[in-house]
Design brief:
Layout (H helix, E strand, L loop, with lengths): L1 H14 L3 H4 L2 E2 L5 H9 L4 H19 L4 E7 L6 H14 L6 E8 L2 E7 H10 L6 E5 L13 H10 L11 E2 L12 H10 L5 E2 H11 L8 E4 L4 H9 L1 H4 L2 E4 L2
Parallel strand pairs: 1-6, 3-7, 8-9
Antiparallel strand pairs: 2-4, 2-5, 3-4
InterPro entries: Ac_transferase_dom_sf, Acyl_transferase_dom, Acyl_Trfase/lysoPLipase, Mitochondrial_malonyltrans
Organism: Gongylonema pulchrum
Protein name: PKS_AT domain-containing protein
């Protein structure tokens, strides 16, 4: 995903010679944030690729500790998600399992991804009507990423970042998965955001809302998704149909 996204970006620049100079804002989902760091000039390609590899290996090691995964949920104002999570964790604890159950991704209004242990996932699937939410599907992933289960990967990334140069200021605005806001352009804060992203939910809904509201009084900009798939475009459509009219996908 990291390499293919940057390859797609290079392809897009070849097709539109003035494209690079017209980009004002970048964001990437989960590992895609590292591609955004490269595009913004904060990380070199070499450093980012190394961090992506270390991060993937560390998070995979964390996943081996416990049978876990991720669920996409549809929620409403009537949903009692916090109560469901608490009861799921209690249920897992009573069965002698690590009680992991928390929001891992905020996708768009009414839809979230939950990272949880297998026992907690089964609890949510069997009690969704009781707590007034809908389990849409299980994701084809190997673990509960962006949750507390990944905490052992934090120290590994801290060590890896010691050999990385953070280049500031960025050439374009870049948004943080961890805060859901613009990155704070200070070396310490960038490193902290990279580390905390591992165990924290991806606030994609919040980022998309900011991008939409930033330009709402102007002629609408183009939104571009570079790399395989059109998942981010599908989420943009749920945020703003007006924004989606100016959406383009650049696959590899």
């Amino acid at each position: 995903m990291f390499v293919s996204s940057l390859a797609a970006w290079e392809k897009a620049k070849l097709e539109e010679e003035t494209l690079d100079g017209r980009v004002t804002d970048v964001a990437g989902f989960s590992v895609g944030e590292f591609a955004a760091f490269v595009l913004a000039g904060i990380l070199s390609f070499k450093d980012a690729l190394r961090l992506v590899k270390i991060r993937a290996e560390a998070m995979n090691q964390c996943s081996q500790r416990l049978s876990s995964g991720m669920l996409t949920l549809r929620v409403s104002a009537a949903s009692r998600l916090d109560e469901a999570f608490e009861d799921a964790r209690t249920y897992a604890w009573e069965k002698g399992e690590l009680p992991i159950c928390e929001v891992a991704n905020y996708l768009f209004c009414g839809v979230k991804v939950v990272g949880a242990s297998e026992t907690c996932m089964q609890f949510l699937e069997s009690t969704q009507e009781k707590y007034s939410f809908q389990v849409v599907k299980r994701l084809a992933v190997s673990g509960a990423f962006h949750t507390a289960l990944m905490k052992d990967a934090v120290d590994i990334m801290k060590e890896a970042l010691k050999d990385v140069t953070i280049q500031l200021p960025p050439r374009v605005n870049i948004y943080s998965n961890y805060t859901g806001k613009l990155h704070t352009y200070k070396d310490k804060q960038i490193r902290e955001a990279i580390i905390k992203q591992i165990c924290s939910p991806v606030k994609w809904e919040q980022i998309q809302q900011l991008l939409h509201s930033k330009h709402q009084n102007y002629k609408f900009p183009r939104f571009m998704e570079v790399g395989p798939g059109k998942q981010l475009g599908a989420m943009l459509l749920r945020i703003s149909k007006k924004a989606y009219k100016n959406y383009m996908s650049y696959p590899v």
